[in-house]
């Protein structure tokens, strides 16, 4: 890099003086991302002399985290160990950090320095920006980009002896799920570790993809020598050709945005004869040359999930379900009034989303929720409100896309008496005022007209506004949650959304996975069925019906699932079982194999395995008259395990 240690140190010290003593922005002295992070750290109320890093981590918290993040740890740890070994004795500690900034796993080596690093990267340690100010992993999480933070670029004096580099980790749907960090003592050149760190991150992402239960995995690249390396593009498809997940390389090669799984299909991504997919799926094609619909030529390798492999996958899948079930994130509360506490879910991504959002929200950091229609954005927003210290205040939702242009301003700001003809006598309160002391939910924020975006930004910056036709400044006292199904970055790039507003509302961004990507579909189906059945008996689902529910594309997500189940319950009234005949046609036309399913019911699918287990629990509980200890003994499992299963059944 050709930069002497002295000049680096001097520049940072100068930057610190400008920023901390003289209140000036140290533009050009240190990287822009570091300046932004200093600003955020200061806004969060941190002081440079604070001691926040070496607090003890509670032991029970550690085991909870290890349980909760098992899937992420399982993918990350082997790659971290490999990388650590290849770095030899260079003194690096590696850590995997979740969306909340919590260390979930680390590899530190031995020696005195390593011991100090190991103490920082204990499982359970919070290294988010909010907790410890500017640092590599915290900042990388906030920005969603690789980050290097050296020595005095850290906000807290306490961590100035260290330098670190961190790269984001993206899950199969393209959503940020955490970061991989490398830290060592001194202000050396952590830049040099970015590349191996990035490769390890890609390998971790590929492991997460391999966990998806797809029917066909395809690796591809325009450079044949990169096939079968962590840099290849990897896409996973369902049996019907729907894209289930893609790694970052694949997203770049194919020009895919995040969360486009489910919307894309093999034949829309690649320009090739239809039998290619079918042959690959049947295991009759393991290599090939494909063209993207943009005309790029790729070498590809295919790996079909064969029946034998399927069985092994099934077993693993069952184990994974146990791991996930062990961490109910939004407890099932079937039967409650829709719209507030009715969220159900054991999905790791959705669960992490809630976790992060909750913390940010409580610290008054605006939360931006991304997700397709019907994924539960409003449910999450209400949930945040209900769980917060402001739950006694109002929850005011406003849909920014559905308001007629002329009405928006008065809806937002209210108006004074006589502000315009036809206005109500005495004026009216706007949503900003109605939300006082509570939460303002800005739905479909991506569709907000430009001119209003400027006014909203001003309110958020100044925390005050005035009614139309009035001069008095009214304090804006509400927490803000915004939601959109659009990619705001794209709108910003196209000039259709203000960048400054984007950064203002995106304090923390959480992405809700599409239903077809959720690992807890089976649980959701059962819980929604119970919720829709209300007081009535809950009928069984035939194995074919369950198969279709599990594998349908669900463009309308959880909302659509709810509608389908409600309809099926009505149609199946008086019958013991819900079958394919109770589903709307579009669910079946989507299925190439629906007719085959009708003709030859399938048994022994993953779902059935789980059902059998839950059925056994149900029966044992009945035999033991609801006595948990006796039931656990008769099933040969620990009481804690049984409690988890009971929760799954909604019997806890
Ligand atoms: N986790 C969940 N558990 C149970 N029901 C859910 C869950 N998430 C969403 N739902 C149900 O799905 C429906 C849609 O949820 P919601 O309105 O929050 O979605 P949304 O993402 O805001 O949709 P849109 O973008 O169309 O406004 C609601 O009926 C809600 O009760």
Automatic annotation (TrEMBL):
Keyword Transcription among record annotations: yes
GO terms, molecular function: ATP binding; sequence-specific DNA binding
A GO biological process held by the record: regulation of DNA-templated transcription
Signal peptide: none
Keywords, comma-separated and alphabetical: ATP-binding, Nucleotide-binding, Transcription, Transcription regulation
Coiled-coil portions: none
The keyword Nucleotide-binding belongs to this UniProt entry's keyword annotation: yes
Pfam family, any one: AAA_lid_14
Domain Sigma-54 factor interaction: 343-570
Protein name: Sigma-54-dependent Fis family transcriptional regulator
């Amino acid at each position: 890099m050709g930069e002497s240690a002295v000049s680096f140190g001097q520049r940072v010290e100068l930057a610190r003086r400008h920023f901390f003593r003289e209140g000036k922005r140290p533009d050009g002295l240190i990287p822009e991302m570091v300046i932004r992070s200093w600003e955020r750290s200061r806004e969060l109320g941190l002081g440079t002399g604070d001691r926040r890093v070496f607090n003890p981590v509670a032991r029970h918290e550690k085991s909870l985290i290890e349980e909760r993040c098992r899937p992420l740890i399982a993918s990350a740890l082997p790659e971290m160990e490999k990388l650590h070994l290849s770095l030899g004795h260079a003194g690096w500690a590696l850590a995997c950090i979740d969306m909340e900034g919590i260390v979930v796993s680390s590899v530190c080596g031995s020696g005195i320095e390593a011991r100090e690093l190991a103490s920082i990267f204990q499982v359970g340690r919070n290294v988010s920006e909010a907790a410890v100010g500017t640092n590599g992993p915290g900042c990388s999480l906030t920005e969603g980009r690789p980050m290097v933070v050296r020595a005095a670029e850290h906000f807290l004096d306490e961590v100035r002896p260290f330098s670190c580099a961190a790269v984001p980790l993206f899950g199969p749907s393209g959503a940020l799920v955490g970061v991989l960090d490398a830290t060592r003592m001194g202000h050396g050149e952590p830049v040099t570790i970015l590349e191996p760190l990035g490769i390890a991150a890609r390998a971790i992402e590929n492991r997460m993809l391999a966990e998806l239960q797809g029917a066909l995995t395809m690796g591809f690249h325009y450079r044949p020598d990169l096939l079968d390396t962590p840099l290849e593009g990897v896409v996973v498809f369902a049996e019907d050709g729907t894209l289930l997940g893609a790694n970052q390389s694949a997203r770049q090669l194919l020009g895919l945005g995040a969360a486009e799984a489910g919307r894309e299909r093999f034949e829309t991504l690649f320009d090739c004869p239809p039998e290619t997919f079918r042959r690959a799926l049947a295991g009759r094609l393991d290599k090939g040359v494909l063209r993207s619909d943009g005309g790029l030529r790729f070498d590809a390798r295919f790996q079909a999930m064969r029946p034998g492999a399927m069985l092994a996958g099934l077993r693993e899948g069952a184990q994974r379900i146990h791991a996930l079930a062990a961490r109910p994130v939004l407890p099932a509360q079937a039967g409650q009034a829709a719209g507030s506490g009715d969220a159900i879910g054991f999905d790791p991504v959705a669960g992490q989303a809630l976790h992060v959002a909750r913390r940010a929200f409580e610290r008054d950091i605006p939360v931006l929720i991304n997700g397709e229609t019907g994924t539960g954005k409003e449910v999450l927003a209400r949930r945040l409100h209900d769980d917060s210290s402001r739950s006694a205040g109002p929850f005011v939702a406003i849909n920014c896309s559905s308001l007629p242009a002329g009405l928006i301003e008065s809806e937002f700001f209210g108006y004074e008496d006589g502000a315009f003809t036809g206005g109500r006598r005495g004026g009216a309160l706007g949503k900003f005022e109605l939300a006082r002391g509570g939460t303002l939910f800005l739905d479909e924020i991506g569709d907000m007209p430009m001119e209003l975006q400027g006014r909203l930004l001003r309110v958020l910056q100044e925390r005050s506004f005035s009614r139309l036709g009035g001069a008095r400044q009214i304090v804006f006292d509400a927490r803000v949650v915004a939601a959109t199904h659009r990619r705001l970055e794209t709108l910003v790039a196209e000039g259709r959304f203000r960048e400054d507003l984007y950064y203002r509302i995106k304090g923390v961004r959480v992405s809700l996975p599409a239903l077809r990507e959720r690992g807890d579909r089976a649980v959701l189906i059962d819980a929604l069925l119970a919720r829709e059945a209300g007081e009535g008996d809950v009928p069984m689902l035939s194995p074919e019906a369950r198969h279709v529910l599990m594998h349908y594309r669900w463009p309308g997500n959880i909302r659509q699932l709810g509608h389908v189940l409600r309809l099926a319950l009505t149609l199946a009234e008086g019958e013991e079982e819900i079958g394919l005949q109770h589903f709307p046609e579009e669910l079946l036309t989507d299925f190439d194999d629906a007719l085959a399913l009708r003709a030859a019911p399938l048994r022994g699918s993953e779902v059935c395995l789980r059902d059998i287990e839950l059925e056994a629990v149900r029966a044992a509980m009945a035999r033991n008259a609801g006595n948990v200890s006796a039931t656990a003994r008769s099933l040969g499992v620990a009481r804690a395990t049984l409690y988890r299963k009971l929760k799954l059944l909604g019997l806890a």
